[in-house]
Amino acid sequence: MSGGLLATSLGTTLLGPFGAPLRLLVPLALTLVALARTGGISSDLFPLLVVFVAAETVISREGGRFLLVGTYAGLALLVVMSPAPTAAAARSMALRFAWPAAAALGVELALRAKEPARAFASRDARDDAGARLPAPPLATGARPDRDALRDAVRDPRAEVLHDLKSPLTVLRVYSDLVAEAARRGELPSEAHLTGLAREMALMESLTGMPPRAPAPAPLASGAASSAAPPAPRSDLVRVLATLVESYRLAHGGRVRLEFVAEGAEIPVAADPVALQRAFRNVLDNAVKYTPAGGQVRVRASVVAQHAFVVISDTGAGMTPDEQKHAFTFAWRSPSASASGVPGRGIGLGVTKDLLEENGGKISLLSEPGHGLEVTIMFPVAREAGA
Amino acid sequence: MSGRVFVVDDDPAMVEAVAAVLSLDGFEVDGASDSTAALRAVLSDPPALLVLDVNMPGLTGWEFCEILRRQPLTRDLPVLFLTGRGEVRDRITAMQVGGTDHLTKPFHAQELRARVRALTAAVPARGEP
Known about the structure:
The structure holds 2 protein chains of 2 kinds.
Chain A: H1 2-15, H2 22-37, H3 46-59, H4 61-81, H5 87-114, H6 116-121, H7 146-153, H8 156-183, H9 190-206, E1 234-235, H10 236-251, E2 256-261, E3 267-268, H11 272-289, E4 295-303, E5 306-313, H12 320-325, H13 334-338, H14 347-357, E6 361-366, E7 372-379
Parallel strand pairs in A: 2-4
Antiparallel strand pairs in A: 1-3, 4-5, 5-7, 6-7
Chain B: E1 4-8, H1 12-23, E2 28-32, H2 35-44, E3 49-52, H3 61-69, E4 79-83, H4 88-96, E5 101-104, H5 109-120
Parallel strand pairs in B: 1-2, 1-3, 3-4, 4-5
């Protein structure tokens, strides 16, 4: 009976994906040393091991699994290196194996049963980089297991494709709607034209094409002019109000979003699409890294002919070292990676480029544990309507 | 009026675009970009149809659908996956987790409308081919 339980525990444990070798080797070495120093398999160390394994399982799901693997491997090695046990000793040993395994397994199963959603979302996508893309079973009626579902979705290739296909889909949808209106002999709706122009600009900026005139041209605007396109101009208040409202709709149930503007309009000489992308990246981060019940504040103001946008959150913040690397392309801090929040460390670097191309500047201020404050500055545009 | 459709996609622009399409057929469209908040909303007030992205931070669409299938109120809720994942095995997975239909991005607005109408048994809209 004990052997069966042990085999079940081992099987469950070994199903977990393997990652950093140190997480396996460290507990293995610790187990060997501890057991050797305290008298081997017959020592009183087992209760401590159980507490350690159970606590580790609760604190970190993956850490718990790795520790279990290390513990089993260490004990197995110890058995191999010991003199041949008698049948009674072997039985006693099997019993000692079985009950810590059963305790840890019990905690694991209880956690899964109570919090299915958290169990799904608790792993860092980065650990999956380069991992196999599991082929879901083709047998009729078979259901893929949770890890297979999660690994398949978090595959880095799938994420890149997703980033490309989403704007393309939105573009096609609005094109279809405009074409459909034309087929009916009707004018396309203003909202559909705006959506089309916005996504077209986004696609062009993603592919590095030079930006066009920023404002969507209504159909009735007359013949195209051969004159140079007007300098880009945006109203920060309008861009931010729209963005914050969309984030409030999407994330308002989890995080409180607040927008305060000093003035009805803050004109800056910047491309509105670039601004929207830049602010969206910063807001994405703020919302992602702010725990449920937290707050994200966006403040826009003008001081001495400079517009300031301050986006602050009540998330975990950044250490000085993390702030130093925050704008490095594809760099992710260890704490961000460990948080389980998906990301590729690209957003802030892209944001800095977008802002600087449009005459803006960005800086960070943070104390670990006290949130992050991102300040973005632009010179105010001199003439309204320029 | 053809019922209420709930759209879940981590890209707010996608939610907006799908809403623009479905509103042509008289659907009332709600949406969310946060999958966890969306799950709460759908479980507390199930719509006539759920349109679900797959690749999302937090809960993926497949996991989302599996959870719905375990709840009595949403066990039979029609779920249309909208995803960039179009391989055969992805479509099979979508069905295995309880999805009702699957549409690969980028899709045409007309196809989305046709599938949503079929899933909600709605009548064809004016001017539709």
